[in-house]
Design brief:
Strand order of the largest sheet: 7-6-8-9-12-11
Number of helices: 9
Radius of gyration: 18 Å
Number of strands: 12
Oligomer: single chain
Helix content: 25-40%
Structural class: alpha/beta
Largest sheet: 6 strands, mixed
Order of helices and strands: EEEEEHHEHEHEHEHEHEHHE
Length: 301
Amino acid sequence: MNKLFFKSCPLCRRRRIKHTLTCTDFSASNEQFELFACEDCGFTFTQGFPSGTSIDKYYQSSNYISHSDTNKGIINSVYHQVRKHMLRRKVRLVIRESHRSSGRLLDIGTGTGYFANAMKRRKNWEVEAVEKNADARAYALNKFGLEVKPESALKSYPEESFDVITLWHVMEHIEELKKLWDNLYRILTSKGILIVAVPNRASYDAKKYGAQWAAYDVPRHLWHFTPATIHKLAARHGFIMAERYPMPFDAFYVSMLSEKYRGSHCSFIKGLYTGTMAWFSALAKKEKSSSMIYIFRKKTK
């Protein structure tokens, strides 16, 4: 198996990195993986993660809802209900932040295609979708009639092809971050917007659960962002952060899963309580939300 190890920080390139947590892959393999953090910029990453096709087997689990769309169990049922609400909010967010009632949108890492389909159903929006996993692409085609392209399609799009590009909980999975960000800059129009949603390791629930925080999701999650570190990453590639929004609903699902990983009795109830506390924490300070949505625009030259 090919594994990728870093001797310096992948973000700031300085060499003061140290072990900070050991996390378990509760979803697929029960293997343990180490998280390292940079003492200078604070960026945290999974050290020694499987690279290239070696990581594919860690997605081959019926528990991995983004690809399997499983409705099994009360926690996944909650996920589906929250997703229905969030799909409507995401569509409204795209239209509000882009200041457009029509345009071209690319959804990267579309999974089983729910968001891409929701945007496709809007009048005057032309939607493209990209997804690495073949089973997820097949699901999207069967359920929604979506012709989802493999990730290799990214490099084939012409310059300034899209007015909006979205990555909903995708950035943390991408091994070659520089290549991705370079492509994002190339194919986004000069006045377009890039929308990125990622888990927030500075959140209330991340602090509470530590190594058992479900959103660490090793080894599928390679990078573990905070508002500060994703801002630095975007700036390095020619983007400015225009806005950021909390995703407080994520705390409920993540907390329920975290309680399950802890082996807690009544994990649903305990997760519901923690999710509620995390909700209030995010109301007081949005940067403490379980996940964050970031709106980026190209820097003006």
